[in-house]
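Hi, here's the filled form for the chain we discussed.

Project: internal
Contact: R.S.
Residues: 361
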Amino acid sequence: MALEFSERIRRIPVYPAASGYSLGEEVAMLASNESPYQPLPEVIEAASRALTGVNRYPDPTNSALRRALSDRYDVPASRIAVGNGSCDILLAAGEALLEPGSEIVYAWPSFSVYPHLAAASGARAIEVPLDGEHRHDLDAMLAEINVATRLVIVCNPNNPTSTALALDEIAAFLDAVPRHVCVMLDEAYCEFSLLEDPDASLKLLDRHANLILLRTFSKIHGLCGLRVGYGLCGSEDLRVALDQVRQPFFCNAAAQAAAVEALRHSDEVTRRVELNLAERTTVEYELRELGLQPAESQSNFVWFDLPDSVDDRQVVSDLAARGVLVRSGTALGREGALRVTIGTERDNERFLAELRALLQG
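And the returned structure, exactly as it came back:
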């Protein structure tokens, strides 16, 4: 007799993870929005020191990291949730807030984990199309909120389309959202946005007890492999609920130590943003020279539509055969597009040369 799995196993989509992690160093890894730059030596040393004590469980309260985040953002530690990457906090929000009969609202295409929340909980997912500039249509999202809505997610800057909304638009949206609805502002890429200071959204927390600012050490700090993210919450109740639905020890000791050290190097954040901006500007210019029109990126990746006659999945396959890994728009919610991470100058030049050869050949 075959095993019988729960109904939600059939509902949950498979996360479209990028391939290529076993291909070696000669591959241009431009598919997963990772940082092309290694962590600072001090960060690696902090993680290494933590490894000497891994015969003990990590601090289950993440006290040192929450204290460091509190000092950095001037948010009480009691309102800071730490997770095994920001996805851990996203999934915890689904567990804590959603159930059959409730609803979740988010834009689409957006981060591929969002559909998991409704599928796992049995809630109804309301996917609101992006506008003509690949941005969130906040008015359309607001129109979908009703008494059944428990959670709204705004990804800003948006993954996979790279676009961002100005803070005044976000603030007006939050003012209009009913208090019974939790709003998660997913800011995984906020440090790369030039629309305003990444700290500008912090002032929203004291005005909205139903708000979570979701952030990560994976991108700007280059700690993808350690998996550590955090949520700055408008109320302590939100943080307690998120922690209650998760397993104990959800953030490992090396990740906690590395993140604490990373917070001490704000100058490195600035330097990496400048490097990304310089390379992003070049990539966008060269794409336009190819007759392509990238969306207005405020992130560490670019998003653009291919010519009508070109299959994005075939382009991804052909680029992979040439040693360049990028993401298919089809896998991320929109046919005919590509998402490409900004890498090193060498990797970016390689991508552009190979794409040019494919499109012109």
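Let me know if anything looks off before we file it.
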